[in-house]
Amino acid sequence: MDNWTQYFENQAVWNSYREQAALWLKQAAAESHIPSMYEYGLMLIAGHEGDAKIGTGEIYIHQAAGQGHADANNVLANFYLHGSRSFERDLREARKYFEIAAAEDHPSALAQLGALYEKGLGGPADSAAAFECTRKSAEAGFPQGQYNLFIYLWNQAGGQERAAALGWLEKSAAQSFPQAMLMLAHLTATGQLPQHAVETAEPWYERCLGFEQTANIACLELAQLYQTLCLDTPRLLRAVLLLQQCYEKENGETALALECREMAPPLVARLRDSIAEFAHDNDLLLSAIRASNRFDPHGHPYLNSADRDRLLANKVKEFPELPTRAARHRKQLQDFLSGIKLPARSFKSRNQGAPGELAPRKPGRNEKCLCNSGMKFKNCCGR
């Protein structure tokens, strides 16, 4: 039996176990078994029986909460905090159910309740109660509570409080809490933690790239870190790609996107000036040209990297010698990239032909070469 056969057989076994567990939970929930109502409710909310049953899952959670189940009270509080299929957003109700769960020392509820107390949401502000809830959550090992406690202590005057704050930040980051990892990377990269070498921020930023809530700012700050460090050619290439990625994900509209746009031109110019250094390795050369192709002639990022990459690939496929020749001179590279244009949208029918070609017309043998070498095509890329 090969590994793939074993894998699929194991998957089938686990799926059968999962279906059996779901059946048992469903039967027990129907009999008002409180832990089963909670667990089966979570399965329905996760879409186990389709979108139509999500509301039913929320009702099961509500019923389990009414029977004093701490986890259910915490989930129900989050329904009210954010709004859900069956429950409209209601901060007072959210606060009430977080308080019920927190009374059972539920670490997540304690962290959320501390934030509500601190901001005065759903009721009056209470800084002392906020700190106490946050401390309990942190000491219970909950990463959000640890991060919140870091914020509280870091903002207090005095080095002793900051030393304690940093300890909580590191504990939260060690559990891969995204905001904690980003903050630790930022403080390290900006030299606010002298005990940490600046370059140790890089792996924290890399981990932040895997989380939606921190990925974009991590792109920008990692590019800024590369500027601070020795900006060798591989880091230069990576920095340029990170800036374009952030700009595109932010749709070019936010303050973060604007920072990427303003930072990019000198880095892109430097990449284009040094692109000949990649000529010894065709894969690296194509990567560098691909990165450069995601920016306009002024070094500002485009929003359509996938389309730009596709058109570049088509052009290189038709003229495979173009990248090597374009890398020899900055002007030839820019002319090469300038020839890559997205086709205008068209409403032509299929009988009228495609709305524009993805690759340039192949020149005649005696016409000038597309790489702008000044030579005839037959003596240059057409050989």
UniProtKB/TrEMBL annotation:
SMART domains: SEL1 (SM00671). It comes from the Bacteria. InterPro entries: SEC_C_motif, Sel1-like, Sel1_AlgK, TPR-like_helical_dom_sf. PANTHER family: ERAD-ASSOCIATED E3 UBIQUITIN-PROTEIN LIGASE COMPONENT HRD3, SEL-1-LIKE PROTEIN. This is SEC-C metal-binding domain-containing protein. The lineage of its organism: Bacteria, Pseudomonadati, Pseudomonadota, Betaproteobacteria, Burkholderiales.
